[in-house]
Amino acid sequence: MSKPRIRIYGYMPGDLRKHFRKAIEYYANQLMTPQLVRNLKIQLYYQDVLNDKTSLGECEVLGSEKKPRRFNITIKPMKNSLKNRIDMFSTLAHEMIHVKQYAYSQLRFMDNCSQKTKWNGRSINERLYEYENLPWEKEAFLGEDRLFVKYVDETRSYDYFFGKP
């Protein structure tokens, strides 16, 4: 498995940091080629600094490269309960799908107009869509649970997310 360069910031209870690192590596390898994964730099912030107060996470491109490789992901801190772990790691999967979209240039926000976005080469006016109907969000929402469940299954982390039977 290829490893991106990962930095994690913010106070986290227990072994949450270790699980975040492991999940980022897993999600990256499921979504992207090994060569691309090795060139990624991902900074994860476990902080309540999101612009949208209802959101659990966000992904931001660092720099202005055409094919970006540096990203900030912010995950909103939550009480360390089983349900909240599921929400946080599903949200992380969602944001990692956005990393993939940016890294493969499927998704590009245009500098000259904040409401225009390129999705697979087509200009999209975000004002014409509800948030959850934006094509990049639809892909991320559809993929987050599948990716999370696959992660739990393949890493055998059932107890961490669902408790002991």
The gist of it:
The chain is of the alpha/beta class and 165 residues long. The protein is built from 5 helices and 7 strands. It has helices at residues 16-31, 34-38, 82-103, 135-155, 158-162; strands spanning 5-9, 41-46, 57-61, 70-75, 107-109, 116-119, 122-125.
Written account of the structure:
- This protein has 165 residues and is of the alpha/beta class.
- It has a single domain (5-155), classed as 3-Layer(aba) Sandwich (Collagenase (Catalytic Domain)).
- The protein contains five helices and seven strands.
- The strands form two sheets. The protein has a four-stranded mixed beta sheet, covered by helices on one side. A three-stranded antiparallel beta sheet has the order 5-6-7.
- The protein is globular, with a radius of gyration of 16 Å.
- The two termini are 30 Å apart.
Main sheet specs: 4 strands, mixed
Percent helix range:
40-55%
Number of helices: 5
In N-to-C order, the SSE pattern is EHHEEEHEEEHH
Strand order across the largest sheet: 1-2-4-3
* CATH classification, class level: Alpha Beta
Q: Give the total of beta strands.
A: 7
Distance between the termini: 30 Å
> Helices and strands: which structural class?
alpha/beta
Find the CATH topology. Answer: Collagenase (Catalytic Domain)
In terms of DSSP E residues, the strand content is 15-25%
Domain count: the total is 1
Low-confidence stretches: none
Could you say what the CATH architecture is?
3-Layer(aba) Sandwich
Question: What best-fitting shape do the alpha-carbon axes yield?
Answer: globular
Alpha carbon gyration radius: 16 Å
What number is the mean pLDDT? 91
